[in-house]
Amino acid sequence: MTAFNELKPSELFRKCDPSQLGFASTDEIKETVSIFGQERASEAIEFGMNIAYPGYNIFVLGPTGMGKREVVQNFFEEKATTDPTPSDWIFVNDFANPDKPDAIELPPGLGSQYQQDINNLIDEMQTALSAAFESEEYQNRRQTVFESFKDKQSELFTQLQENANKHDLAMIKTPSGITFAPKDEEGVLTADEVNELSEDDRDEIKQNIGGLQEQLQKILQQVPIWQREAQDEIRELNKEMANFAIGGLINEIIDKYKEHKEIVEHIEQIQDQIVENADAYLSGNGGEPSSFLEAVSQHSYRQTSLMDQFKVNVIVDNKDLQGAPVVFENNPTYANLIGRVEHYAQMGTLSTDFRMIKAGAMHKANGGYLVLDARKLLSQPYSWDGLKRALQSKEIEIESIGQALSLISTVSLRPEPIPLNLKIALVGDRLLYYLLLQYDPEFSELFKVEADFETEIEWDNHNQDLYAKLIASIIEKENTKPFNNTAVARLIEQSARLANDTERLNTKVQDLHELIVEADYWSKKNEHLHVTYDDVQKAIDSQIKRADRLREKMQESILRDINLISTEGEVTGQINGLSVFSLGSFMFGKPTRITSQVSLGKGQVIDIEREVEMGGPIHSKGVLILEGFLRGRYAQDIPLSLSASLVFEQSYGGVDGDSASSTELYALLSSIADVPIKQSIAATGSVNQFGQVQAIGGVNEKIEGFFDICEKRGLTSDQGVIIPKANVKHLMLRQDIINAVDAGKFHIYPVEHVDEGIEILTGIPAGSKDENGNYPERTINALVKDRLEELANRLTQFGKDKGENSD
Question: Which domain holds residue 665?
Answer without folding.
Answer: 552-771
